[in-house]
From TrEMBL:
Protein name: Uncharacterized protein
Keyword annotations from UniProtKB, A to Z: Membrane, Transmembrane, Transmembrane helix
The keyword Transmembrane is assigned to this record: yes
Organism: Desulfatibacillum aliphaticivorans
TM region(s), chain numbering: 6-28, 40-61, 73-91, 103-126
Lineage: Bacteria, Pseudomonadati, Thermodesulfobacteriota, Desulfobacteria, Desulfobacterales
């Protein structure tokens, strides 16, 4: 069918050319003056060359940007050929009392159009399959497949979903409140009832690699409540052990919780964006509370929490999300086409129109654009991130074409914007770790940033939004690392990070 599709497309072009030529020849036959015929022939030749040149440039440009020529080109050519053929027949051999020949011509044209649709559709499926398979193979090369003798970490996590009841979930939600008592009888009862959960989380953290199935069937339906119940339970257990004085165990539990959050964000399921934001903020609450408790219970060096949300966007991660898009397009063209950035957040590229030929053509275009997006990301990932909003607005105002505009917006916002988010997270994490190590050695938090350099930190990390070092607000018995995020991005970036007495002051302010 693919070969037939190609053949029919070129056949239509040839038929159109012949029909137009026949119409011109018919017109020439009616013209008696030689000079007029010559003038018309020259004009027709110039017109033909111009149209041919424009067509060649058009097809070359579309191929250059990875866009299959739209179906309107072929259908317009077919309709033009039908109109030309009918006009020639009408003026020459058609008997006005007989509709046999026009009916046959119309039927033949409809058959030609139908075969063209089938051929073009199969051609696009074939192209998309090739691209999707290449992306999937490229991404899966970095991840271990499931083996009969060893569980993958996602299967270990899966066994913990659905463990907690609705009543327990409602109780676990309260563990982030300022007046929560981690030593209550309800806490001890829950820890005793679900004692195996922490062991299972530890087992999953020790697994090397994380198998990404690319479809929801491998993991089953994920409920947001199951994910947050598990995270809240781990946070509650960490606070319980911290208050009891077992900081090593508390730190390990929070580490397992962070590992779970990072891994679950790779899952291309429903409402992933809300999962990512909710988990990161919950983890930050528990980490701040943990450090606040730890400062009065022990001066020994504890395993510091992995505060940064993740490393900078890596090539294999980009390939992974592109493969997710490719796989979804390959398996049925979801109404939403999306991919995920390195924080796990969901990003929509385009809404597919309902008409199947258009939908598949746009899908093909997006897959090729995603390949270019990956290459551009490799080059742009190290650029400074100041002036994001200005660059994004300039990008939007430059091109209002729907598909190009949306891809351009994602490119400018995600490559630069979310890269800034990760730079900021990593910088806050490094600065918090240095401040904690200073606190362990000196018995108090630093009073000025210069005391951390160079003994605890090579230099104060740069805030990518201001281009200046991260700002620290010092108070008695603690400090706050200010993220100074733009107001327009409040929902996308981490909150200020509180340590020591700053945590208590922040909680009291928030409660009041």
């Amino acid at each position: 069918m693919i070969t037939a599709g190609y053949a029919l497309i070129w056949l239509e072009s040839l038929v159109l050319l012949l029909c137009v030529s026949a119409a011109v020849a018919f017109a020439f036959h009616k013209i008696q003056r030689t000079w007029l015929k010559a003038a018309l022939l020259v004009l027709y030749s110039l017109l033909f060359l111009t149209i041919t040149g424009c067509a060649v440039l058009y097809f070359y440009a579309m191929d250059y940007v990875g866009f299959v020529p739209p179906w309107t080109v072929h259908y317009t050519a077919a309709l033009g050929s039908i109109a030309a053929a009918l006009s020639i027949l009408f003026f020459t051999k058609i008997n006005f009392q007989s509709l046999t020949k026009p009916a046959l011509a119309g039927a033949g044209a409809l058959i030609l159009l139908s075969l063209t649709i089938i051929g073009q559709t199969n051609l696009l499926h074939w192209e998309n399959d090739k691209i999707a398979k290449r992306y999937v193979q490229q991404a899966m090369a970095h991840y271990p497949g499931p083996t009969p003798n060893e569980k993958n970490s996602y299967l270990v996590y899966k066994s913990l979903f659905g463990v907690f009841t609705e009543e327990e979930y409602m109780f676990l939600r309260k563990t982030r409140e300022p007046d929560f008592n981690p030593l209550s009888e309800d806490v001890e009862r829950l820890l005793s009832k679900h004692s195996s959960v922490l062991e299972t989380m530890r087992e999953a953290s020790l697994r090397s690699g994380f198998y990404h199935p690319f479809n929801s069937a491998a993991m089953g339906p994920l409920k947001i409540r199951d994910i947050f119940s598990l995270s809240y339970f781990c946070g509650m257990a960490a606070l319980y052990h911290a208050v009891k004085g077992d900081l090593e165990e508390a730190a390990q539990i929070l580490y397992d919780m962070r590992m779970f959050a990072n891994r679950i964000n790779y899952y291309p399921g429903e409402q992933s964006f809300y999962v990512e934001m909710g988990l990161l903020r919950a983890i930050q609450d528990y980490e701040e509370h943990f450090l606040y408790l730890a400062q009065d219970l022990s001066r020994k060096l504890i395993p510091f929490l992995p505060l940064s949300s993740s490393a900078l966007m890596q090539q294999k991660e980009m390939e992974m999300w592109i493969a997710v898009v490719a796989k979804r397009l390959q398996e049925g063209f979801d109404p939403w086409c999306y991919f995920r950035d390195s924080s796990g957040a969901l990003d929509f590229i385009d809404i597919f129109p309902a008409t199947p030929p258009i939908k598949q053509i746009i899908a093909n275009f997006q897959l090729k654009q995603l390949g270019a997006y990956l290459e551009a990301t490799k080059k742009e990932i190290g650029l400074p991130c100041t002036g994001i909003i200005e660059r994004r607005l300039a990008f939007q105002n430059n091109d209002k074409n729907l598909t190009i505009y949306l891809l351009a917006e994602n490119y400018c916002h995600e490559v630069m914007g979310y890269n800034c988010k990760l730079i900021l997270c990593n910088g806050v994490g490094a600065l918090a770790k240095a401040a904690w190590n200073y606190h362990v050695d000196k018995g108090q938090y630093p009073k000025q940033p210069e005391t951390l350099v160079p003994a605890y930190l090579d230099e104060i990390p740069i805030n990518p939004y201001t281009g200046k070092p991260l700002t620290i607000e010092f108070i008695e018995g603690g400090l706050t690392i200010l993220t100074e995020k733009p107001e327009i991005y409040v929902g996308y970036y981490p909150n200020d990070f509180h340590m020591g007495a700053a945590y208590e002051r922040y909680r009291l302010t928030e409660k009041n």
